[in-house]
TrEMBL record:
Pfam families: PIG-L (PF02585)
Protein name: LmbE family N-acetylglucosaminyl deacetylase
Any GO BP: glycoside metabolic process
Keyword presence, Electron transport: no
Presence of keyword Protein transport: no
Gene3D superfamilies, alphabetized: LmbE-like
Keywords: Zinc
Molecular function as annotated in GO: hydrolase activity, acting on carbon-nitrogen (but not peptide) bonds, in linear amides
Length: 246
């Protein structure tokens, strides 16, 4: 077996980050530990959720679930120092790839003007046999990569100019969490407890999914995740990303 190279540290020469994912809880399954460190260091991080996760809890109707999951996501974000949480209201489970999604993301990028975008794995699988990724994750992740360029081109979605949104070509990095092709990492030694607390805020979702105490579930899941990354990051518990540089 070919030895994998060590992870490079994630760049920190940026001021603003916009994290774009499909569902409430997507950022908490790993990336939140890095986000907690970034906000503590003075970086500005905002969240954009493409859906409200309304199809994610079997024993709750979509109308009930979206309220619960929005509330849990806002509480989860506050734990890691994020106050700006917005929702686009695309339909959970059936997000459609295409110009509408790209335009919505380009609009948000022009508004927030980030240098760093964070999203979730857009590849077909999670990198393990039989681990097929979901359509929503694939659609949103690919759209984020496309929208990073769309936001800087005034002739793509020119209607955004009518909304007073000038092009933003300042996205320098797109970091993809939980990718099977990770290359960079963030040390989360000091922020793992906050990451656990952040994931545990998704109490209704975790209870329906697993049945265990949310804190116990979150600690077991995230500890396994960061220890695995530590093998390629000098033994330090870490959150890993696939990094695209523009």
């Amino acid at each position: 077996m070919t030895e994998q190279p060590d992870f490079e540290p994630m760049p920190t020469d940026w001021e603003r980050c916009l994290a774009i994912v499909a569902h409430p809880d997507d950022l908490e399954y790993g990336a939140a530990g890095a986000i907690a460190g970034w906000t503590a260091a003075g970086h500005e991080v905002s969240y954009l959720l493409v859906t409200r996760g309304e199809a994610g809890i079997d024993n709750l109707s979509p109308a009930e679930a979206e309220k619960v999951r929005e509330r849990e996501q806002r509480a989860s974000a506050r734990v890691v120092g994020v106050d700006s949480v917005q929702f686009l209201d695309h339909a959970d489970g059936v997000i459609e790839e295409g110009p509408r999604l790209r335009r919505d993301l380009a609009r948000a990028i022009r508004r927030h003007r980030p240098e760093l975008l964070v999203t979730l794995n857009h590849h077909d699988s999670w990198g393990m046999p039989g681990s097929w990724n979901t359509p929503d994750h694939r659609a949103v992740g690919r759209a984020v990569l496309d929208a990073a360029g769309d936001a800087g081109n005034r002739w793509i979605f020119p209607e955004l100019l009518d909304e007073g949104l000038e092009p933003w070509d300042g996205v320098r990095y797109v970091a993809v969490a939980s990718s099977p092709y990770v290359s960079h990492a963030v040390d989360v030694t000091a922020t793992l407890d906050r990451a656990v607390a952040s994931l545990a805020e998704h109490r209704a979702y975790i209870s329906a999914l697993d049945g265990r105490d949310p804190v116990e579930y979150a600690r077991e899941h995230l500890t396994t995740h960061v220890q695995s990354a530590a093998e390629r990051f000098g033994g330090r518990p870490a959150v890993s990303f696939e990094l695209f540089c523009r």
